[in-house]
């Protein structure tokens, strides 16, 4: 008997994992919430990334990535498969960054892309 294991479409760097656990703890986010990763229309290049704690909704797929409960709408996987999320804490930039191999172009803000 074979068990199918669904591979998570996105990954996190160790810095992103550390920051996500820190945010969850600081904001006292309950275990019924997970991290929503997705896309929405808008931004300089046509699509924006969604990243924030939320409750599971109809149409979501759920993943466990590095100990983090992650929710993603099924349709968003097409745009996000292979993406790595990092957290930068430097002098020039501070915040989450998205390294998306599916993006044909990105804008200077780093949170908007086109396919």
UniProtKB/TrEMBL annotation:
<dbReference type="InterPro" id="IPR031108">
    <property type="entry name" value="IscA_plant_cyanobact"/>
</dbReference>
<dbReference type="InterPro" id="IPR017870">
    <property type="entry name" value="FeS_cluster_insertion_CS"/>
</dbReference>
<dbReference type="InterPro" id="IPR016092">
    <property type="entry name" value="ATAP"/>
</dbReference>
<dbReference type="InterPro" id="IPR000361">
    <property type="entry name" value="ATAP_core_dom"/>
</dbReference>
<feature type="domain" description="Core">
    <location>
        <begin position="10"/>
        <end position="110"/>
    </location>
</feature>
<dbReference type="Pfam" id="PF01521">
    <property type="entry name" value="Fe-S_biosyn"/>
</dbReference>
<dbReference type="InterPro" id="IPR035903">
    <property type="entry name" value="HesB-like_dom_sf"/>
</dbReference>
<protein>
    <submittedName>
        <fullName>Iron-sulfur cluster assembly accessory protein</fullName>
    </submittedName>
</protein>
